[in-house]
Amino acid sequence: MVQKRELIKGNSDSLLLCLLAQQSMYGYQIIKELEKRSQGYFQFKEGTLYPALHRLEKAGLILGKWQMLFNSRPRRYYHLTAKGHAKLSTERAQWQDFINAVNLILQPAEI
Amino acid sequence: MVQKRELIKGNSDSLLLCLLAQQSMYGYQIIKELEKRSQGYFQFKEGTLYPALHRLEKAGLILGKWQMLFNSRPRRYYHLTAKGHAKLSTERAQWQDFINAVNLILQPAEI
DNA sequence: TATTATATATAGGATAACAAAATACTATTT
DNA sequence: AAATAGTATTTTGTTATCCTATATATAATA
Q: Predicted confidence band at B70 (pLDDT cuts at 50, 70, 90)?
């Protein structure tokens, strides 16, 4: 499976919202989960993920809460806000529009 | 569609290669053709397209040739090189891999 | 004459993905 | 006890590229 990093651009926020809509997670867990679910395709770097989480939180789309644990480091669990759910819904639609538009170019009706 | 900009990022080169693989075109024509074929979705700006064409030509993927016309401005027609055809083929494969990976996140098998 | 459409080009700003390193704690191995 | 590996978050600096805006030029139309 050939991987092109450029393709991820502009989609990471949607992927994160989608993942957190299904389940609250903390940063490190998100990295592992994305890799697992995509069968190794997505390998988010810390320098990509954490700034993205902060961006989404600042925009009010997700909310992070510190969770103290006695046998490990504190973790910051993120969950989707109502605003985040609404955003995810529009982003899903935008993603479909985009796919459709690209396919019209890549696979035109008449060749 | 405010988000559209980010989705296009990293994909414009593939779109251009694909378009020029089907037919030689000049810049202005490409803008119009992309808009038409995508039913208005893609509206490339000059500041996006021309630098992209120069980038692709510099990389040896496309080749531009000036065509003089007596009743209009000169046009620079671009066509795909052999290297460009090879590149397009791998980019098509990458695009499919990417779609598959995203769909594994957006529509997981079990929810 | 002014505007619109055609046609190419580039400077400057904004955003985001990445590599890399810093920090810090826990668990396992030697 | 010390070293190593794994877990977990943060930040700095670099790079790529998409956009706005502007500049230039010609032909057709109002």
A: confident
- A94 lies in a domain? yes
- Residue B98, amino acid: F
Q: What are the per-10-residue average pLDDT scores of chain A (111 residues)?
A: 71 94 96 93 94 95 91 90 95 91 78 43
Using a CB–CB cutoff of 8 Å, tell me whether B32 touches chain A: no
Per-residue pLDDT tens for B31-60? 999 999 999 999 999 999 999 999 999 999
What CATH number has the domain bearing residue A71? Answer: 1.10.10.10
| B87 Cβ contact list (under 8 Å, min separation 6) | B17, B61
CA B72 to C1' C1 (Å) is 21
- Alpha-carbon gap, residue B16 to A106, rounded angstroms: 10
In a domain, B111, yes or no: no
Q: CB of residue B88 closer than 7 A to nucleic acid strand C?
A: no
Residue-number span of the structural domain to which A18 is assigned: 13-106
Give A98's contacts (C-beta < 8 A, 6+ positions apart): B4, B7, B41
pLDDT at B93 over 60: yes
Alpha-carbon gap, residue B20 to B106, rounded angstroms: 32
* B101 chain-A contacts, CB cut-off 8 A: 38-39, 41-42
**What value, to the nearest 5°, has the Cα angle with vertex A71 and ends A70 and A77?**
75
Strands B75-80, B25-26: parallel, antiparallel or unpaired by DSSP? antiparallel
**In Å, what is the separation between the CA of B48 and the C1' of C13?**
14
